[in-house]
Design brief:
- With 307 residues, this protein is an alpha/beta fold.
- Helix content is 40%, strand content 22%.
- The chain has two domains: 32-116 and 252-288, D-Maltodextrin-Binding Protein, domain 2; 118-250, 3-Layer(aba) Sandwich (D-Maltodextrin-Binding Protein, domain 2), CATH 3.40.190.10.
- It contains twelve helices and 13 strands.
- It is globular and about 60 Å long.
């Protein structure tokens, strides 16, 4: 009887062990670097370029499904720190304090830069002056308006553009008087297009790749050229001025992966930092982090086409 019990116990153990191995195998097969499903939390100011990358990625790898969740920068970072999001796209790298927090949790975030973006100033089309000094904007944020700006319009109090401008102005809060905020970049563009004297502060990607319903609205605003704090010249948020490091409001885009294994997050990060992903960035109007290569075929003689 005792011998029978031991044999039965051994059989149960082998069965459970086999089931556990099968379960682990099935879970591993659910997601690879090119297969599975993934939620990516994205800074709302750069959603357009991410949508383009996801569309091509899914069109190339049919077994991959990526859901883009746009949020304010504060929400993106909080979700990442609280492990509610495993893969995010931001307009800044992690701070030393944030990296320390991950180290305490024994998490090693993989941070991959993939594009250079810009904060853009826009005004109503009726405003003939398409130039603006960064100092005037900073003075306004510091509560020292010079009369040249009627009001500033931001997308969201917790957005990356607000954080960016507060850091430039070295203030903890923007003034309540003369500062307006909405929820999205499109709302900022629409408000500025309908109100003279207002200066909108948005991510430039929304101007280069407007949603279909915003095409006509974009025509009613000006993208302003900006004079930096240590410059006498004005520069625009174009690929050329970004590449030459002339535009004073440039910023890099990062994909931060905290999955901790070789999953779809790693595959997508490699894709957008690779040749195809960088070509998508180039076509979008932003500046690729790495210039896509071009192959030239040199011929020793001219071959005339047959008539």
């Amino acid at each position: 009887m005792l011998k029978y019990s031991k044999v039965l116990g051994l059989m149960v153990f082998v069965f459970l062990f086999a089931m556990c191995n099968q379960k682990s195998k099935n879970e591993a097969e659910k997601e690879t670097i090119l297969k599975g499903s993934l939620d990516i939390t994205v800074d709302e100011t750069v959603k357009q370029i991410v949508d383009d990358q996801v569309a091509v990625f899914e069109g190339t790898y049919y077994d991959a499904k990526i859901t883009v969740k746009p949020k304010s920068e504060a929400e993106v970072i909080n979700d990442l720190l609280n492990q509610k999001a495993k893969v995010v796209i931001t307009t800044r790298d992690l701070t030393p304090q944030e990296k320390t927090r991950f180290e305490k949790s024994k998490i090693n975030p993989r941070v991959t830069p993939f594009a250079r973006d810009a904060v853009a100033f826009i005004s109503n089309k009726s405003n003939n002056d398409t130039l603006i000094a960064l100092k005037s904007v900073i003075d306004f944020i510091q509560g020292k308006p010079d009369g040249k700006i009627k009001g500033l319009v931001f997308d969201n109090p917790n957005s990356s553009t607000v954080r960016y401008m507060k850091e430039l102005a070295k203030v903890n809060e923007v003034p309540k008087a003369g500062v307006f905020s909405f929820k999205t970049n499109n709302e900022v563009i629409k408000f500025v297009s309908e109100n003279d004297g207002m200066i909108g502060v948005i991510g430039v990607n929304w101007l280069y790749q407007p949603t279909p319903d915003m095409t006509e609205t974009i025509k009613r605003i000006n993208v302003l050229s900006v004079k930096g704090l240590n410059s006498n010249n004005y520069y625009s948020p174009t690929q050329t001025d970004l590449a030459l490091d002339k535009y004073p409001l440039a910023r890099d885009l990062f994909i931060i992966n905290c999955q901790g294994y070789s999953g779809l997050g790693m595959g997508f990060a490699s894709f957008i930092a690779g040749d195809i992903g960088q070509r998508i960035v180039l076509k979008s109007g932003l500046l690729p982090y790495k210039t896509p290569g071009r192959k030239l075929k040199i011929r020793s003689e001219i071959i005339k086409d047959k008539e």
